[in-house]
Design brief:
The protein is α/β, with parallel strands linked by helices. The chain folds into two domains: 39 residues; 146 residues, 3-Layer(aba) Sandwich (Glutaredoxin), CATH 3.40.30.10. It is built from six helices and seven strands, in the order αααβββαβαβββα. The strands form two sheets. Strands 5-4-3-6-7 form a five-stranded mixed β-sheet, with helices on both faces. It has a two-stranded antiparallel sheet with strand order 1-2. β6 and β7 form a beta hairpin. It is found in: Cell envelope.
């Protein structure tokens, strides 16, 4: 009888272990935003390599844009010249985008008085963005790039989230394809501010 009970406990433990591994794999591969399969696309591993001249041309195109905010009012990116500008391309359906936004809101609140401006450009439908901000507080301006932004210079991104940091003088500082953690970004902001 004890052998049967031990076998039963081992079978139950094995089934629970397999179920736990399957659940974790589901969370990482499906809920985490990674495509199912054996590989992660190269576009999600690291940003494409661009020359400094190409990076600056992207920044110049971005700074020449005028995009609507969530109320439909046009907002010129040029209004933030002279500030350290953190531009984050995002979408409401992009889980890593949504996960990094609370950190961006905290940093914006912490550094706005020191000349740091965060701007979110949604590569999304305006109705989706409006619904998102009803449930999630964002402390910085959100502008509408639209889902079909690939034709517009300054909005052409290969994947989301994508963040560009621009120095006060309008020069390209850095970019990051994929989620950007708060500690890394704060260190960069402190360096640019001169702390």
């Amino acid at each position: 009888m004890n052998q049967q009970r031990a076998l039963w406990v081992a079978v139950v433990a094995g089934v629970l272990t397999v179920a736990t591994v399957a659940l974790l794999a589901y969370r990482v591969l499906v809920l985490g935003g990674l495509p199912p399969g054996d590989t992660i696309p190269d576009s999600l591993r690291s940003p494409p390599q661009v020359s400094p001249a190409e990076a600056q041309a992207e920044v110049d195109a971005l700074m020449s844009l005028t995009l609507d905010d969530l109320d439909g009012a046009p907002q010129a990116m040029a209004q933030w010249r002279g500030k350290i500008l953190v531009v984050n391309y995002w979408a409401s359906w992009c889980k890593p985008c949504v996960e990094e936004m609370p950190a961006f809101s905290r940093l914006h609140g912490r550094y706005a008085a020191q000349g740091v401006q965060f701007v979110g450009i949604g590569i999304d439908e305006v109705d989706n963005m409006r619904a998102f901000v009803k449930t999630t507080a964002v402390s910085y301006p959100l502008l509408v790039g639209g889902r079909n932004a690939s034709e517009t210079p300054g909005l052409q991104v290969k994947a989301l989230p994508y963040t560009v940091v621009i120095r006060r003088d309008g020069r390209f500082e850095s970019s990051r394809l994929g989620r950007l953690d708060e500690v890394t970004l704060e260190a960069l902001l402190n360096r640019l501010i001169g702390h």
